[in-house]
Task: inverse folding
């Protein structure tokens, strides 16, 4: 057994917080993980983990060994020797998160293509609007929409999400069609709960930025549900282009305030330190970049 393999296994156990999860990620059996950790404990002359029935707890020595392990693996790779875990076809479990509606619309083909290319990798995908802690949960990649807060994660921009203000014709028969942003104060609105502030919408035009207070009739964190609510006439809604355009073209929704643009949102793929990125995660990131043009839908002019 290669000691570099053992060091890389130890690093993954520390990141995943579980022998079982590390085994799944590396495509190994749990006994192999145990054997590699035992080898390191013998080599370093210390205990690295305390295992209970419910939790794996690193010892104080584990934190010291972790830095040393990363330094050794870095030197090994910088010497031009291929990393064992990056040789050959990728394997193990790739855990990632994707925004719910965006993932449904864009990612089924990408998941299928990745599966065809790398059949030894098991995909564990969480569809969620929450910004999951990647390190804490052992998640290797995430797609995120919106302005990112400062963090230790690496972000690669892969597109822009255009948004449109829309309403159902039925709603506009009950309320005056807005001509200016301030007219929206008189309309019920369907709003996205994860944007802040929740009771304001912003628009941009040739005359500058316009901010208007709105009255939500429904608030949720799923763009598909917001689209259904708008189609039912529950309120005007700011929807991403993949939800709005097809319904506008079908006459089921009306594009409101076309001279006032809703600010677009950046689209990123994010991941922890790429120095420790697995081969499978790196390949999925590259596939997202390769397919990034599919995210650039043409919104209405």
Result:
């Amino acid at each position: 057994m290669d000691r570099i393999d053992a060091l890389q296994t130890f690093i993954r156990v520390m990141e995943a917080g579980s022998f079982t999860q590390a085994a799944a990620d590396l495509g190994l059996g749990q006994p192999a993980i145990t054997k590699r950790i035992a080898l390191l404990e013998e080599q370093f002359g210390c205990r690295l983990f305390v295992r209970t029935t419910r939790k794996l707890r690193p010892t104080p020595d584990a934190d010291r060994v972790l830095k040393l392990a990363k330094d050794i693996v870095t030197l090994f790779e910088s010497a031009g020797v291929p990393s064992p875990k990056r040789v050959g076809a990728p394997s193990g479990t790739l855990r990632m998160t994707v925004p719910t509606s965006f993932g449904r619309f864009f990612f089924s083909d990408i998941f299928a293509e990745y599966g065809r290319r790398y059949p030894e990798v098991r995909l564990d995908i969480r569809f969620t609007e929450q910004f999951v802690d990647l390190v804490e949960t052992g998640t290797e990649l995430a797609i995120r929409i919106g302005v990112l807060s400062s963090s230790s994660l690496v972000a690669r921009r892969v597109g822009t999400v255009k948004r449109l203000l829309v309403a159902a014709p039925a709603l506009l028969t009950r309320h005056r069609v807005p001509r200016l942003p301030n007219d929206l104060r008189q309309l019920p609105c369907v709003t996205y709960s994860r944007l802040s502030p929740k009771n304001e919408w912003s628009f941009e035009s040739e005359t500058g930025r316009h901010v208007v207070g709105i009255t939500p009739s429904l608030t949720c964190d799923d763009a598909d549900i917001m689209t259904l609510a708008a189609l039912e006439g529950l309120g005007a809604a700011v929807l991403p282009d993949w939800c709005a355009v097809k319904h506008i073209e079908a006459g089921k929704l009306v594009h409101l305030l076309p001279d006032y643009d809703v600010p677009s949102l950046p689209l990123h793929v994010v991941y922890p330190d790429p120095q420790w990125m697995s081969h499978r995660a790196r390949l999925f990131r590259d596939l997202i970049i390769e397919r990034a043009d599919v995210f650039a839908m043409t919104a209405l002019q």
User: Anything to note?
Assistant: The CA atoms of residues 230 and 289 lie 32 Å apart. The first helix runs from residue 3 to 16. The first strand starts at residue 49 and ends at 51.
